[in-house]
Every structure is written in structure tokens, then in C-alpha cells.
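Predicting holo structure, fe (ii) ion bound.
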Amino acid sequence: MQSSLLLSPLPIPTSFSHNPKTPIRRRRRTVPPAAVAAPPPLRHQSVTHSMPPEKTEIFRSLESWAAQSVLPLLKPVDRCWQPTEFLPVSSQPYDQFSDEVRALRERTADLPDEYFVVLVGDMITEDALPTYQTMINTLDGVRDETGASANPWAMWTRAWTAEENRHGDLLRTYLYLSGRVDMNMIERTVQYLISSGMDPGTENNPYLGFVYTSFQERATFVSHGNTARLAKDGGDPVLARICGTIASDEKRHENAYVKIVEKLLEVDPSGAMTAVADMMRKKITMPAHLMYDGQDPSLFEHFAAVAQRLGVYTADDYADILEYLIGRWRLEKMEGLTGEGRRAQEFVCGLAPRIRKLQERADERARKMEPRGVKFSWLFNKEVMV
Ligand SMILES: [Fe+2]
Ligand SMILES: [Fe+2]
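Done. C-alpha cells:
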């Protein structure tokens, strides 16, 4: 049942990209004719460059701090895991390779379809990585100006992207070898999603951008941690290790982004506090919110509903992450704020209980509704309860 208030906080987008040859079952969205890659729908008012130009100086002055305190949170390539370490070794004699593939298929055989919906959705989210690098490079004062800039902010973003790139690679190959999912539909979904982009409402503003990434990295840490637990319970310890290993990368990335916001709160308390409030007012959009497979206009909402039902990522997690960040950044205890900063503090620090209360009411309504099945193209149109 789709009871999540916060996993799908979006108004239904009014346009999305699609292949004009593919017939579309319309529900609540309208599609512009011949829109092959329509611009993503704007969820927020299109505010751009909302950071006052003089604040760019703050990020310049923090470059050496970033080099000393943020870059060390990356792992050197030779100490990083690589996807092949978790996969059947294709260079060994064919019999041995096929034995390893058979073992993989036996391990995944008992995992339920609903688990695969969530794992595929997570993999697709990871695979839209070009969108996230693009998003970070929209941020004033920290973007990679040349594509190979030696600026520490840019170095972080490139190396972060390179670390993240292994996540989608590994999950995609594992899913491919499992034989449980329709890879062609998954590939189409990735292509649609990268074409559509995302709209997190970060306004080219690195204050907003780093609040967003702090939240998002923790959300992916939680979500991959839960898919690890479910894989273990479902009889696939290798997949559990894969998801757990990805989760530990997310945790390290979360630490970096949280540290950056912590520093901003130190050097510009009211500016940073206002940014936290601004992002929370908008609600943190999931990065794959424009997901589409050419068939289901509500694909993201359906995926999010299954994730909520399995407890992989829930509205409670959303409130937990907010509370964690409030504690980690010591927002309740911050003093010396301007009037605007104090109002932002009051809003942020009172938000989690309000979210939980709203969610309880949404859950109550959802309980009264009949559960229904939704067909997922990723699973050869098998029906899964949402
Ligand atoms: Fe990731
Ligand atoms: Fe991540």
C-alpha cells in the first residue's frame, strides 16, 4: 500500500521524456507530442544562483580546509574494492565460471519479487550518476571549472563520482547474472532517467547542495543497509555483503558532506541554518524521482511504495535522518543566530515530530484502503503488492 508521505512528496510531473514510438498509457501526466527528451518538470520555482555572490568567497577561503579535512575521506584507488571482487570470475575456465553463475542463481532464487523491485530501483538510482555529478557541478563556488580542476572541491566531486560509479556497476552485473529481472526494461529506465535529470531545488547554491547531499548519502546508507539485511535473511550472503559494502561507501560520503555543512554552520551559522530549513521546507526529493520505464507513469511512486512496505526506506527513516542531522550538527544548541536564523532553527528542530504525526495519519488512511498489485516491467510485468 502506498502510504509514504515523504517518499513521494512530489506533485505529479506534467511532462517526461519518452520514445514517441512507444504507446503511452496516460494516467495523470500529459506528454508533449514528440517529446524525446523533454526538459524535466520543475517542482520548485526556478530559482537560480540564490547564494549572494560575496559568499563565494567563503568557499574559496575553505579550500585548504577541504583539502585537509574532506579529501582524506576518499579512499585511494588501490585500497578500494572493485565490482569484480564480488562477481563470478569470467577469465577462469568456462566450467568454473558457469559453476559460479549457477551458484549465484541458486542464492538469488528464493529472494521474493518485491525484493527485486527495490534492488532494481536502487540500482537504477545509482546508475543515474551522471545526473548527480552534473547537479553538484551546478553549484556556485565549488563546481569543477575545467573538468580536471585541481581545486579541492572539484577534486572531491570527481573522486566521489568515481567511487559511486562502482555501485551501479556491481548491482547491475549481479542483477544481470541472476536472470530474475528484465535487463532491457531496466536499461530503458536508466536511459529515460538520465535524460530527464532531477530537480532537487538546490538553486546553484552550495549551502543547499551540501545539505541535500548530506541527507541523501545517509538515505542511501540506510537503504543499502536494509537491502543487505533482507538479502541475508533471504539466503544470499554474497548479495548481503555487496549491499553492505556499498552502504559503507555511502556512510563515508555522508561523513564528508555532513562535515562540510558542519563547517558552514561554524563560519556562517545563520546562513547555514537557513539553508537546512530551506531544504527541509522543500522536502528532500529522492534523486530518481523522475524515473520512468516507458510504461508506468507512476513508476517512482510504485517503487517507493514497495520500499516503504519492505522497510527498506520509509517515512520514518526520513524523520530519523532529520533527527540524526539535527543532533550531529547540534542545531538545537546553536546560539548567536540572526532573527531569520532563529526562525529557521525553530522550524527545523520542531519538524521531525510533525512529520511522524502526518505519517501516522497517512498510514491510518492507507490501512483502510485495499492492497493492490502493480505490474513491474523490470520483472517481466509480474505483479507486486504496493
Ligand atoms: Fe551510491
Ligand atoms: Fe552516495
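The beta strands are 373-376, 382-385.
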